[in-house]
Every structure is written in C-alpha cells, then in structure tokens.
Amino acid sequence: MNSKSADENPPCTPLTIQNDGISLRLRKNHTSSEPKSSSRLGRTNSMMNLTTDENKGHYHPTGYVHPNAKPLKSCLSNSNLSSMNRTMTEPNLSGMTKMRRNISFHRVEIREYERAVGVHPVSSGCHSLTLGWEYNPELTVLDFELYEEDRMKRSKGYKVSAVPDIERGRLLRYEADATKEELQEAKREIRVTRDQRRRTNQLLQHKQREKLEESLQSAKRKIRRFVTGTSKEKEEEKLWRSAEKSLKNCLSREDVSASSSSGPIPSMCESLESESNETEESTTATSNTELSSSLPAEDQSGGDDWEFSYTTETSLSGT
Fold it and tell me: 20: alpha, beta or left, given left = phi > 0 and alpha = psi -120 to 50?
C-alpha cells in the first residue's frame, strides 16, 4: 500500500490514499496552531476596538489604519468639535489668574438745563416744574473728591424744601417765559390726570371690597357646611332642588293667571253682542214709527215703494 503521511502534505491540499486498487482522495483543511476562542470571548473581542489583518492573524491597537484602507469621514460636525475643544480648554482657563479691573473717577461735569412747564399730577397746586430740552453748552467741571466732600457736608442735616405753588408760577412766568395759554393748558391736563387717577383708585378699592366680600361669603359657606355636616355636593343638590321648586311655582302661577284672564273674556263679548242687538232693535222700531207718522193717509195703503226704501235705508244703516 502506497501512502503518504499527512504531515508531509501542505495544508489545504488533496491527499490520495490507494488500498487494494481503491483510491481515496481526501482534502485536508487548514488548521491554525492557535486555540479557538469561545463565543463569549468572540463577543468580548468584537466589543473591543481591535482590527485584524487579513494576510496575518495579528491584532492591531486602536487607531491603526491599513495602508490600502479608504479614508473615513467624521460624523461630528464643526460645532460639536468646537464645543468639545472649548470644554477641554475650560479647565485650563479656570486655572489662569483673572485680570483685576479698576474703575476710577477724576472729575464731575455738570450740565444745566432750562426750566419748562410740567404736567405732573402729584404736585400741589396748579403749577408744575420740569426740565426742558434746551441746555447750556458750557459745562461746569469740578474735581470729584472736592465735589464729594462738599456734597457730604451739604447732605448732613440739610433737607430740600418743597417749592410753593406761587413761587413755581413766578419761576415759570418770568424765568421760563411761559405764556398764560401754556399755563392754562398745563392746569387742565393736571386736573384731567388727577381725575383719572382718582377713578382708578376708586375702582381698585371697589375690586378689593368685592374680593373681601367674596372671601367672607366663602368662609361663611365653609363654616355652615362644617357645622351642619353637609358636603359641597349636597349643598349644590339642595340649591338645584330649591331652584326647580321655585320654577314650578312660577309656572303654576302663570297657568292660573292665564285661565283667569281667558274666562271673563267670552262673557264680556256675549254681553257686548246682546247690547248691540238691543240697540239695533230699538233703532229699527223708532224708524218704523217715524216713517208711519210721516206718510200721508192716502199713500199708507200702497206701501210697496216705502218698504223698499225702508229696507234700503236699514241695510245702509246696518252696513
């Protein structure tokens, strides 16, 4: 028997065995010397970021790019990349020392504006002062430290007194050069604004009273329900029943009034018809007597024409 050893044949090559004129052709599969991994190990390896070379059975670390591989496109947008870079650089910025910012004042510039006629409703009297749009272009410049010292001295025990209404009127007339028409118009606007504010305050007070009354009524209802032991649903049912009862009473009263009003009407109509018939009979009797007395004696025997005239007159009078 001619046979060849399996070790002498290369992997993945056919193997021929001849025995008693029977030849068998077998094929040897390629087997690796490395042990096979279980399914669990295969799953763990698939979860790891490892790549294998097709020609060589070696594992490569993450980030390895095959020379013949195609370039891949990132799924992150530019905004996501910039936000990631910003978050990565923020801890570094937090460690840096921040710059100290100082604010300093050197001088105070004062600009003087003109006086004008105001329409403020809170001012006492009928005149109100305000600032106009015109100003003096020449500024008054003062040192800041000196200005603060002078201001502190003036503020100690110093109270600004309100300008009387007469003095305000004088300032407006002689210094602001306001005319009488302007002052009258300002007075009218002040009165109108005061009336509007007064009405608004009255409405607010009325609304507050209404809210107070509603709260008191709700408190009374709650106390009554607590004392009587009735719930809100039972109280609503009671109210509905009382409303239905009052509605039924109203409907019954209307029916009674309608029946009482419809009863006397036919009797009145019958009395009126009887009275009209009696008056017609009396008028016809009087007309007959008058006609018989007015006719001459020789013509009373032939009364056909007079009967015709009488019937026509009565028909006309009846119509």
Answer: left
